[in-house]
Specification:
GO biological process, one term: aromatic amino acid family biosynthetic process
CATH class of the largest domain: Alpha Beta
Number of strands: 11
Order of helices and strands: EEEEHEEHHEEHEHEE
Number of helices: 5
Helix content: 25-40%
CATH topology of the largest domain: UDP-n-acetylglucosamine1-carboxyvinyl-transferase, Chain
Shape: globular
CATH superfamily of the largest domain: Enolpyruvate transferase domain
Pathway: Metabolic intermediate biosynthesis; chorismate biosynthesis; chorismate from D-erythrose 4-phosphate and phosphoenolpyruvate: step 6/7
GO molecular function: 3-phosphoshikimate 1-carboxyvinyltransferase activity
Catalytic activity: 3-phosphoshikimate + phosphoenolpyruvate = 5-O-(1-carboxyvinyl)-3-phosphoshikimate + phosphate
Strand content: 25-35%
Structural class: alpha+beta
Family: Belongs to the EPSP synthase family.
Length: 174
């Protein structure tokens, strides 16, 4: 549903133009990649129909945990876990993601430590949600490898998303 343009041989820089309806897909990853899986799952939230991503081997489940931890059900997401099991001592599951309208929320502060590294993904989802998403109690994001709050705010602003960084979080208007 999106138009993607690249330089010669599929190399960066990339330009992605939306505006079209995303179509659901059943995708088998050719190699294990938590990052690619995350992109497809988040896009699946906005696709018409059911999106399925199958991995050849387990990868980090940070996005799945973040989606559950922040209750995508609170934001209106339609995500279910199927075939839950343990692999190498880690919980894994197959995810079913269906397109749904997301709504902004106030993120409960007690959940912040559980997903401190997943906030950039959540910020993108918040930008696509209807209404306001408020994050507080996440000052640690300002002193990681970079000031993640400011870096993400700068990126969202460059994309035309209304947002306001705060000393301990961010306010994003979807």
């Amino acid at each position: 549903g999106a138009v993607i343009e690249t330089a010669a041989e599929g190399r960066p820089p990339m330009t992605i133009r939306g505006g079209h309806t995303l179509k659901a897909l059943d995708y088998k990853l050719p190699m294990a990649s938590a990052q690619v899986k995350s992109c497809l799952l988040l896009a699946g939230l906005y696709a018409q129909g059911k999106t399925t991503v199958t991995e050849p081997a387990p990868t980090r489940d940070h996005t799945e945990r973040m989606l559950r931890g922040f209750g995508y059900s609170l934001m209106g997401g339609d995500i279910t876990l199927e075939n839950q099991r343990e692999v190498g001592g880690e919980p894994v599951a197959d995810l079913r993601v269906r397109g749904a309208r997301l709504k902004g929320i106030e993120i409960p502060e007690h959940l912040v430590p559980l997903a401190i590294d997943e906030f950039p993904v959540l910020f993108v989802a918040a930008a696509c949600a209807e209404g306001r998403t408020v994050l507080r109690g996440a000052e640690e994001l300002r002193v990681k490898e970079s000031d993640r709050i400011q870096v993400m705010a700068d990126g969202l602003l460059a994309l035309g998303v209304k947002c306001e960084p705060t000393p301990d979080g961010i306010i994003i208007d979807g």
